[in-house]
Structure formats: C-alpha cells, structure tokens
Amino acid sequence: MPGAGTFRDDFGASVVVALVALPLCVGVAVASGVPAELGIVTGVVGGLVTGWFRGSSLQVSGPAAGLTVLVYEAVQAYGLPALGVLVLAAGVVQLGMGMLRLGRWFRAISVAVVHGMLAGIGLVLISGQLYALGGVEAPGQTLAKLRGVHELGSQADLAAVLLGVGTIAAMVAWRRVPARLRIVPGALVGVAAATAAAVLLRLPVEKVRVTGVLAAVSPPGWGDFEVLASIGAAGTVVALALIASAETLFSAAAVDRMHDGPRTEYDKELIAQGVGNSVCGLLGALPMTAVIVRSAANVEAGARTRAARVLHGGWLLLFAVAFPQLLEIVPLAALAGVLLHAGWKLLPAKAVAALWRTHRGEAVVLVVTASAIVVTNLFEGVLIGLGLAVAKAAWETSHVHIEEVWEDEALCVQVLGNASFLRLPKLLDALDALPHGQPVRLDLSGLRHLDHACLTALEGWERTRSPLPGREGVI
Questions:
Q1: Which UniProt keywords apply (predicted)?
Q2: For position 373, what pLDDT does the model report?
Q3: pLDDT at 274 over 90
Q4: Contact 251, 292 (CB under 8 A)
Q5: CB 182 within 8 A of CB 160
Q6: Dihedrals φ, ψ of 61, to 5°?
Q7: C-alpha pair distances (Å), 51 with each of 46, 99, 289
Q8: How confident is the model at residue 273 (pLDDT cuts 50, 70, 90)?
C-alpha cells in the first residue's frame, strides 16, 4: 500500500480509472441484459475487494466486454436470479484453481485460440450493439443478427444512430488531442458529448434505466442453487471461470510489460479474482475479470501501488449512490457506441495477417475459433478451437520416417520418429509399397513413440509378409 510519496500519484490515477470504468460498467451491464446498476456493483467489488489482494499490483478488475456474450446467454436461459449462483460458483472454481497453483497453465493456451476467442466475442458484440445503436430490437441468435444487418437502415432511429456514431467519432478523435488532455478518457468524453446533445436537443431516444444501486443488489436464494443441477449451467460456470481467468492472466502479462514494478503472481491473482467473483455472486452482480483498458489507463495515469484500484472502487460507489440520477440522462445509443468501439478493438486483424504469413495453421485455428463462436456460442466455440489446436499440435509432432537398408541380401526397414494413429495411413502405404515375396526385417528401435493403433497395424502387416529368422529389433 502507498506511503507519503505514492499516495498523490495513486489518488490521481484512481480518479482517471473511475472515469474510464463508469461508462464501461454501465455499457457492459446493458449489453449483458441486466440492470445497469449491477455493472457498477461489479466495478465497486473489483476495486474495494479484489483491489486489496497482492496478485497484480496495477491491473484493475470489473465487468468486461469479453463476458457479455456468455452472461447474456446465461440470463436468457436461466433467468436473472440464477446469475448470482453461476457467478458465485465460477468464483469458487477460480479459488480452487488458484489454491491448486494452476495459474501458470493458462500461459500454455494457444495464442491463436485466445485471439480467436476475442475475435468471436468482438463479432458477437458488434452484431448485437448495431441494433442497440439504432434503437431496434435484435433477433436472438448471432447469425440472425448478422443476416438482418442490411435491414437496419430502414428501421433504425436516425437520432440514436447519430448519437452513437458521434460517440465513436469523439473517442477516435480524442486519441489525437494533446497528451495533457488525454488524461480524461475518450469513452467518457464521447458519452458526455452524446448525453449533452441529447439533453440540449431534447432528442426522443431511449435512456439508461436506473433504480438505485442498493435496490439492484439481489442475493441468490436457496432455491436458485437448483440451477447447478443442469449440465448446461455447469458448463456455463466452467466457461465463466476459464474465460475470466484466461482474460485476467493475459491482461496481467500485458500490464507487466507496461511498468517496472512487481511482477504478477498468477496463482495469487487467480485467488483474488475468485474472491471477487464469489462476492459478486453473493450480491447477484455481473462476473468480473481484469480489464486491459482500465489497467492500461491506471498505469498511464501514474499509479504506483494497488491503492489506486482500491480508491477507484470507492469513487464508483460514491458516484452511484450520490448521483444515480445522472445515469438516467445517458442515451443507450452512446453506450452502444462505446461497446462497438470495444468490439472493433477485439478483432485481431493484424494478428491474423501476421499468422497467415508465418504460421498459416495458427491462422486457421484463429478463424475457425471465431467462426465457431458466432455460429454456436462462446463456450462451444472455444472448445472447438482448443480441440483444433490440440489436433494440429498432435499432427505436427507425429512425424514418422521410413528408411530401407539392404543387409546381407535382406531388406531392413527402419521406422523412425513418432508413430501415432494420425500417421498410420502414411506408414501402411509405405510398407505396402515394399516388394512382395522379399523377406523384410522391421526395425522399430528408432521410434520415440508408438501408440497401440500403430503397433496393432504393424503386427498385422508382419503376419502377411514372409517370415525372416532372427527378427531382432522387431517390437
């Protein structure tokens, strides 16, 4: 925690991070299909609870755009009262992973799968927020949303579209202003400008609905825990825990490169996230994860210790309790603009191009993962991506090579490398091409790996050949 020399820096950074977090907390909640206040509750917990832990000193936690898709699907499937149970269970899973010291294993996840997951989330987020931008009710499925985009022009509310586009334009333009002004976050500038325009011009656009933070808190009842008996709900819990953990630890790795302070302790950070999500679940709020946008703002604003993120939670709580009426004048189209901008930044166009030039197989994994998320859902899409990455790795490592050597007028066939079922067709084709009627000694001593499928096939092939006395080296 801070001393006299760091408190001033942490205090200033906390104000900046709170201003960055506020529109994102509200926007993520609205996109997730839950009351706006629940996003603020998660932001407060991310600061006042998770912020105290020592896992990562400068990264900031709160509701994340990367979880909106999964939360929205969960709320639609099981209802808002069940959300707290799912988030609580995910927090317990994270706690268990941290205590079992599994944090380091998240660094072994294929980067292509991670980029594909982010791209899929970005596409789903964009497809949904385009409808919110135009004030049009969106279809339920992502593919239906994408198919209906061309009809939005005739249905959209022009005033709402202009507010949303203006918000995005302000955010983009703000990146070009002098550095001393950029201490005010672009998202806040864009939302404030759109809100001012809506109020001054009295535009009849839909606004954020606020009932009060304390009134929105709804702890789950005992009956709500029955949802965990569902296989689908259990899958949602696992998906929440894994995706939130992966995003947190990838964010931690990125933040560590931005400062010279203490490095992240991955297992402690997992425990911190587990405690935070458990508290969010008990309050019936959104799940949390460390967010690179807020974390980067924290570092760039000059934060020195974890006090900055704790204080940012206090600012969020103060604003939500003291000035909730200010949220009610914010147009939903402005928040849609913020999330559209966030979704666009999740699309890894540069990563795809770089992978295509150097590792085309990885590029295919990325595109397939993103496409699978759009076609199915986040959990199934990530599983498909992981399965494809594992299959690709298995294929690339299962190299088998056959050498033919004549020894004393006998043909010795040496099989080298890794013989797995993936290479079995190639292996049998090469063996079947050997001259028939000629005794063959099959030498498998050069194999580093031989699975049961290949062993069985080789034994069957041997029985069809002329026997050769003294079959040394045959397995």
A1: Membrane, Transmembrane, Transmembrane helix
A2: 83
A3: yes
A4: yes
A5: no
A6: -110, 155
A7: 6, 19, 12
A8: very high
317, 77 in Cβ contact below 8 A?
no
Return all residues near 307 (Cβ < 8 A) that are at least 6 apart. 1, 2, 6, 7, 10, 14
Length of the chain: 475
**pTM (2 d.p.):** 0.68
Residue 371 pairs with which residues in a beta bridge? Answer: none
> In terms of Cα–Cα distance, which of 464, 58, 52, 107 is closest to 301?
58
* Token code pair at residue 62: 């709160």
pLDDT of residue 381: 82
> Could you tell me the two tokens for 234?
């259990």
Residues 6+ apart with CB under 8 A from 337: 133, 163, 164, 165, 166, 167, 168, 171, 190, 194
Here the tokens at position 332 are 């939903």
Give the model's confidence band at 238: pLDDT under 50 very low, under 70 low, under 90 confident, else very high: very high
Give the max Cα distance, the chain. 98
The arithmetic mean of pLDDT across residues 44-61, rounded, is: 90
Task: Give the pair of three-digit tokens for residue 89.
Answer: 């269970």
Helix axes 452-463, 424-432, angle to 10 degrees: 20
Residue 226 to residues 221, 235, 353, Cα–Cα distance (Å): 10, 15, 46
237-260 core/surface letters (b: 16 or more CB in 10 A; e: else): bebbbbbbbbbbbbbbeebbeeee
How confident is the model over 88-142, as pLDDT tens digits? 999 999 999 999 988 777 666 677 887 787 788 788 878 878 888 887 877 767 7
What is the CB-side half-sphere exposure of residue 295 using CA atoms within 13 A? 29
Q: How many CB atoms lie within 10 A of CB 183?
A: 15
d(CA 90, CA 244): 9
Name every residue whose Cβ is closer than 8 Å to that of residue 285 and which is 6 or more positions away in sequence.
Answer: 38, 39, 41, 42, 45, 84, 87, 217
User: Which residue's entry shows tokens 């279809």?
Assistant: 139
Closest CA to 157 of 174, 177, 137: 137
Distance CA 463, CA 239 (A): 49
Token representation of residue 432: 């079947």
Residues in CB range of 192: below 8 A, 6 or more apart: none
Give the 3-state secondary structure of residue 408.
coil
CA–CA separation, 44 and 286 (whole Å): 11
Q: Give the relative orientation of helices 36-48 and 7-31 as an angle to the nearest 10 degrees.
A: 150
Contacts of 163 (CB under 8 A, 6+ apart): 194, 197, 198, 203, 205, 331, 333, 334, 337
Q: What mean pLDDT comes out for the span 213-237?
A: 88
